[in-house]
Each structure stands twice: as C-alpha cells, then as structure tokens.
Amino acid sequence: xxxxxxxxxxxxxxxxxxxxxxxxxxxxxxxxxxxxxxxxxxxxxxxxxxxxxxxxxxxxxxxxxxxxxxxxxxxxxxxxxxxxxxxxxxxxxxxxxxxxx
Length: 101
Hints:
The protein is mainly alpha-helical.
C-alpha cells in the first residue's frame, strides 16, 4: 500500500475562518466551507491512518481464519478489507496486487 503525497497531519481547524491549517499554520483548505465539513476535513490524516491499520488488520485476520479453516469468518474480513481498500483507493492510495484481499 502506497500513501498519496498529501500534507502530513495533524491538520487544525481554524474555526474563526472555517479553514484547515497544517501544524505550521499554512492553509490546507482555504476558502469558505461549512464548519461541520471543515471539522471532517481536518480529521482526514487521522481517519486515513485508522483505515490503514484496519486494512492491515483485516487482511491479517482473514489469513489467520483461513489457516484455521474458518472460511466464513475469513470472508467477512476479506469483505471488510475490500471496502477499506476501495475507500483508500478513492483517496489516492495505490496497492501492490500481491496484497489483494
């Protein structure tokens, strides 16, 4: 899995101006956006990190369940990994096909 070249977090919400700043105070998203949208955008680095971890854990659990012959559980973890992978791909991530769930 290769992460896109986005500005690393943390991102900070400047609520007074509804804009997103990096940890040095430089604008990430400048211009008007609704405060709920701005909060969600500011959380993006943390959300992506959580999805990366969940993707890796889902693949690991699928492998473990397959080794134990628990194919139903393995398939559930594969489905979760596929959903996470689709979301990460939409965010610009690329994947090595050897890790295809």
